[in-house]
Amino acid sequence: MIRATRKKWLSILLTLAMLVGLMVPFAGTAGAVGTVYTSLEVPPVEDDTDGASLGSFQIEIDPLFVLNTTHEAWVELPADFEIHKLSVAGSVPFEVYSGKLPVTFPVELSPSDVTANIADVTVSDFNERGFKITIAPGTGYIDGQKFRVKIGFPNVDIPAGVEGDIKATITNIKGQLVSGSVVVATTSGGALNVAVLDSNTFSDAGDTEGVKIRVEETVAGKLKANDKLKIELPDGFEWGTPGSPTVVWGDLGSLNGSVNANGDPSKISITRSSDNDTLEISIVSDVYKSDARSAFEFRAPIVVADTDDAEYGDVIAKVKGDYDVSPSELVVGTYGDYQVQVEAEDPDIVAYAGQNDQEVSNIVIKESLKESLLDGRTITITLPENARWWKIDDQEVEPGDTLTAVADDNSVYLDFAGLQGTDDRTAKFTIRGKSTDAAELKIENISVALKAGVTGDLVAKVAGSQGVSGEITLAKVVNPVEVTAEKTNVQLGKFEQAAGKITITEAAAGAIDTDNGNNALEVRLPDGIKFSSKPDVEVTKGDLEVESVSLAEDDTVLKIKFKDDSNEASTIEISNISYDVDRTFGEGDIKVEVGGPALVQTDGIDYSNKTWSESYDGFFEDNDYVAKVVNATCVTPAPGGAKYSASFVIGSTTYTVNGVQNTMDVAPYVKDGRTYLPVRYVAYALGISPENILWDGRTATFIGEGRVVQVTPGSAVLTINGAPVTMDVTTDLVNGRVMVPFRWVAQAFGAQVNYDEATQTVSIN
User: Fold this and answer.
1) Do the Cβ atoms of 40 and 150 come closer than 8 Å?
2) Is the pLDDT of residue 21 over 90?
3) pTM greater than 0.90 (yes/no)
4) Could you report the per-residue pLDDT of 368-425, keeping only the tens digit for each?
5) DSSP letter at 725?
6) Lower CB count within 10 Å: N or C terminus of the chain?
C-alpha cells in the first residue's frame, strides 16, 4: 500500500514537471519565460565588404526586473567579422574599438503613457566582433513592466566566403538575457536583377514606344564605373536611342552622399554598341556608387533591321556583362505580321446528329498584332450541308436577325451581321473599332441543328473581306444511340414469323430527348412487313423508364415513350418480335429504321417553326431516322419453294443459315460415334416456322414442306408422315432440347448432309 502511494506521488510530480515545461515559450532561436529576440531588419549584403550596414534586432523582456535583478549577456558576430559602429535604443551610431569605455543609454518605459527611465542599457568590454550588454534598473523602474530595446550594426566589415544568414549570438551571463541567436543580415551573392516591366508587340515598323527595363542592385554599391551590364538583341534587331533613366529607389547617382530623389541621368550611362544590337549600362564614375541598394528604369525602342534574319515570335535578349546577373535572358517584345487567326476552342465537343440546339465549340479570332483586325471588314463562317445555325452568343437566330458585340476585347468589337446564302448556312460577322493591344475575340454559346444520320467532324469554312480563310472543326457529330440487332430467316407470305432482337444503346445520358415524356422513339418497318403483335420492350441498363409501348400506322411503326430523360446512359431491348411478311416484299434483308422525335427533330423544325411537328418540312428533308438495322432476312424466292444452306459445328452454340449467324441454347456433340444435332434448330434452318414446331412434353412434332416428322426422347423410332423409321441409336433430351444424329435428321427432312472431319462441321442443304 505504501509503495503504491509513492508511485502515485511520482506520477503527479512528473505531470507537474511536464506542465511547467509546456508553459516556457520558445522565442526566436532561444528564449525563456518573458525573453524574445526578434529580427527587425535583415538586409542583403555582399561578402568581402568593408563598412557594410547590417540590420538590427530587438530584445524584449516581459516582465522586467522581477525582484530588482540585473541582466547581462555577451553579443558577438561570426568569426572574422569586425564591428566598427553600433546603435543602441535608436541612438546615433557610435564607433567602437578595443579599450573603448562603456557606453550607457537610458531606456524609457515601452510602451507607456508616462515617461520613465525604467532601465539603463550599457555596452562594454568591446573587441573586434563582440561586446557585453548589461540591463540594470533605472531611476524609474517598475517591477513587472514589459521592456524593449533595439541593437543595430550600421558599420561592419564582412569577410570573404560568407554565405547565407549572418547571425548575432547572445550568450547568457546572468539574468533573463538567455542564450540564443538572431539573424541580422543575409548574403545575396552580389548579383544585379534585370526585369522587363512593359513590352510590346510590333511589326516591321519596330517598337517605337520602347520596352521598359528595370535594373536593380541586390546590395548597395554594386554598380561600378568600370563594369558594364550588357543587353544583346537577336539577329535582325537593333536598339534605338534609349531614353533617360529614372531612379526608382535608393540613392544611385547621388554626389557625396546627398540623395537626389529623381536621379541624375548624366550619372548613369546607357549607350549602344557599334552595331547597335547591344545596350551597355554603367555608372559614369564610382563617385556615384550607391550607399543604399538602388534601382533605376529606362525605355529603349527596338528596330527591325533585317526582316530576313528577324524571326517572328518572342524577341529574346541575352543579358551579359561584368556582373552576375539574373535572369540571363529577357523577352523584350513580340515580333510578327498583321495576321488574324480563326480557330475552334474545343473541336472535340460532342454533338448529336438529328437534334437541334446542339452546343458546338467556341470560336476564337486572334490578332497577331494590335490593329490587325480592320474596322468594317467581315469574317464569314459557313457550316457544312448537314448543319444550320441555331444560337449565336446564346441568342436564337434566323434569317434577318443581327446582334451587336457578340465578342469584344481591347476596344475592338465583333457584330453578327446576319445569315447569308440561299440555305442560311453562312454566318456573317463585322469588325468594329481598332484594338489597343493584340485582341482575342471569342464567340461563345453557339449551337446548331444537325441532320440525322450524318456523323463525323463538323467542319466549317472561314472566309470574308478581312482576308482570313481556312477550315475549323466545331464538333464531333455522333448518333445519339447505337442500334444493333440479331437476325433470323423468314418466308414470304407467312404470318407471325420470329425476327431478331433489337438493342438500342444511348451514346450518353440524356441522348434520347424525351421532352418530358412527349417525344417517342420509333421503330419503322419497310413496306410489305408488319408487326404480328406488340413486342416486349425492356430497359436493361440505366434509368430510363418506359411510359408506353404502342403500334401505329397499320402496325408498321412501334412507338416507345419514356417518362423522362435518362441520368445514366441507358440500353433498351426490343424482343419477341414477330412479322407478317407480304409476298410483295421480295427476297432479301428486312431493314428496320430507328428514329422518331426523341431521336430526330430537325426533319420537323425549321427557322420559321421551332416547335417540332410532323407537318413541317424541317431543315433537312427525307432524313427522319438515325440508324437502319437488319433483324430478319427473307429467304423464300417468290413463287417457288425455299432454298436453305445451314452449317453446325460440334461444341459451338452458333450456327449459320444462308450465311446469317444464329445462336442456339445447346451445342452439337458426339456420342457413341454419332454426331447429335438439336432437331428444333435444324428445323429452323430448313425453314420450318416456330408455330409448326410442337412439343407435348413427350413427343416433338415438326410440320413443313408436306412432311410431319415426330421424335420421342429415349426412343430409336422416328416417324415421317406416320411411317416409322428405326434408327440405330435412341433420341436424347439435353437441356429440354431433343437431340438426333444428323444423318437421321437429314433423312427425316429430305435434306442432303455432309460432315467435315477436319473442321467438325455438319453442312445441310
Assistant:
1) yes
2) no
3) no
4) 888 899 999 999 999 999 999 999 999 999 999 999 999 999 999 999 999 998 889 9
5) E
6) N
By CB atoms closer than 10 A (0-12, 13-18, 19+), residue 3 is exposed
Q: What is the pLDDT of residues 562-600, one digit of tens each?
A: 999 999 999 999 999 999 998 788 888 999 999 999 999
Whether the predicted pLDDT of 27 surpasses 60:
no
Q: Which positions ≥6 away from 188 have C-beta within 8 Å?
A: 44, 45, 46, 218, 219
Find all residues with CB under 8 Å of 410, minimum gap 6, and list them.
370, 435, 436, 437, 438, 439
Cell of residue 390, nine digits: 441555331
Distance CA 43, CA 49 (A): 14
Q: In this structure, what is the dihedral angle of CA atoms 309, 314, 319, 325, given to the nearest 10 degrees?
A: -170
The CA distances from residue 356 to 449, 455, 511, 698, in Å, are: 4, 14, 12, 59
The phi, psi pair for 684, rounded to 5°, reads -55, -45
pLDDT at 580: 93
Strands ordered across the beta sheet of 229-232: 200-202, 329-335, 313-321, 229-232, 278-283, 268-272
Strands (E), 400-525: 403-409, 412-420, 426-433, 440-443, 447-450, 456-463, 470-478, 481-485, 488-490, 497-498, 502-506, 520-524
Scored b (16 or more CB within 10 A) or e, 487-515 reads: bbbbbbebeebbbbbbbbbbeeebbbbbe
